[in-house]
Amino acid sequence: MAAKGISTIGAASRSLSSSLMAAAKEPDVENLRLIEELTSNVDAVQERVLAEILGRNADAEYLDKCGLDASDTDRATFRAKVPVASYDDLKPYVKRIANGDRSPILSTHPIIEFLTSSGTSSRMRWPAARYVPGLHTGKGLYFLFARSETKTPGGLTAQPALTSRTLQEEGLRLHEPNMAAILCEDASQSMYAQMLCGLCQRHDVLRVGAVFAAALVRAIRFLQLNWAQLAADIETGELNPRVTDPSDRECSRGDWTGIVTRVWPKTKCLNVVVTGVMAQYILTLQYYSGGLPIVSGMYASSECFFGLNLRPLCGPSEVSYTIMPNTAYFEFLPVGEAVDASNLVELARVEDGREYEVVVTTYAGLNRYRVGDVLCVTGFHNAAPQFRFVRRQSVLLSIEADKTDEAELQRAVERASSALLRRRGASIVEYTSRACTERVPGHFSPALPHWTLAP
């Protein structure tokens, strides 16, 4: 069977995604009006969404085993009868669907594909033209890498959520370069084709990005290593060592400070995820971009879409997402409390400043499902809570009965970098961690690839 987090996307999630992607061509006022309406009526919208989900999936085997029937669409009955579920709880049902059982197991609507989770929720972009004038008058260069799909024993497609989303958008012409380059199975060839296309159209590019910060850093590093060959291809159409284009001379100088705006001079912002574990790349991206705004605009996972960053030009450390109440039914388990259905808090009743694990009920048949993301309430937009992504619940380091999460590790690395490296004109580009048990007590230390120290 496939990895943890396999799920399907509900109709409402697809609808929201499509409307937001189309928003770049619609008046901003209409999009803002919809957001204001949804965020002003959070509890009523959530009540309607839950009733729609339960009514839609009333004949599903899972809800039937929970004791619900078609008339049980109210919150009280739902909370009393449906337990909190993890992937392990749903795994037997998922296996049956993957093996070809077409009966209404989790959902009464046909399951057409599985989305495999990367284990890292995507905080993606959304149209920011209201904040960056002229942003959509040119092109966006996004480095996307789609993995090959697989087939379940029952013949259903199983692929990462990003791959599915990219394929769906082929007809919308949202991404450059073309799908052949994105879907190339050789990552190096895919990167080369995308970078070559981006360089050829460098004067049309107004925004540069990738889904995760690591991918964008990897793309710039690829340019650093392969600029001469890329330049030769652009100039002659065949392998040629001569470099004449001004942008390529920028690369030959050996100074990579602000290289993004020197190669793509009209770039107004970066669209990339820099929250959670991706925060380690913020300084590197600021170095390469010359301080361009970094936009982390939308929060989503393979389970469903969650919300929007209504201040897309805020600093990376200030990013908070306003949950859109029409995409799924949201509940929250206070961190530190027992995993029990009675402890779950509804979206409209979370407390400012408190940390919660997010639990979703989706149109596609996930009921009270623990996504694994821990969020902290940072305030409210109208009646809708705003959340800062804190960490993945399952990502912990433990060596001496301690519990060190990715956010604490990031803070420790930042402090060490500030104290030891920046005064020497160097910084950490990327790191991982390893357990050191040579001494007692044991401790963790960053393990740095050979190229991680950059001037």
**Count of DSSP-assigned helices:** 14
Radius of gyration: 23 Å
Largest sheet: 9 strands, antiparallel
Task: Name the beta content range.
Answer: 15-25%
**Low-pLDDT residue spans:** 1-25, 119-126, 170-177, 239-245, 448-455
Please tell me the overall pLDDT: 75
The first-to-last residue Cα distance is 45 Å
What is the structural class? alpha+beta
Q: Percentage of helical residues?
A: 25-40%
The total strand number stands at 22
What is the 3D shape?
Answer: globular
Strand order of the largest sheet: 2-9-10-11-16-15-14-12-13
Describe the structure.
By secondary structure, the chain is an alpha+beta fold. Among the domains are: 129-296, no CATH class; 399-454, no CATH class. Helix content is 33%, strand content 22%. The chain is built from 14 helices and 22 strands. It has helices at 11-22, 28-40, 42-56, 61-65, 75-81, 87-98, 161-168, 179-182, 187-200, 213-236, 246-252, 259-263, 282-289, 406-420; strands spanning 113-116, 122-124, 139-143, 150-151, 157-160, 205-212, 269-273, 294-295, 298-300, 305-308, 321-323, 329-334, 345-346, 355-361, 369-381, 384-392, 396-397, 404-405, 427-428, 432-436, 443-447, 453-454. The strands form 6 sheets. It has a 9-stranded antiparallel sheet with strand order 2-9-10-11-16-15-14-12-13. Strands 3-6-7-8 form a 4-stranded parallel sheet, with helices on one face. A 3-stranded mixed sheet has the order 1-5-4. β17 (396-397) and β18 (404-405) form a beta hairpin. α9 crosses α10 and α10 (213-236) packs parallel to α13 (282-289). The longest helix has 24 residues, at 213-236. The protein is globular and about 70 Å long.
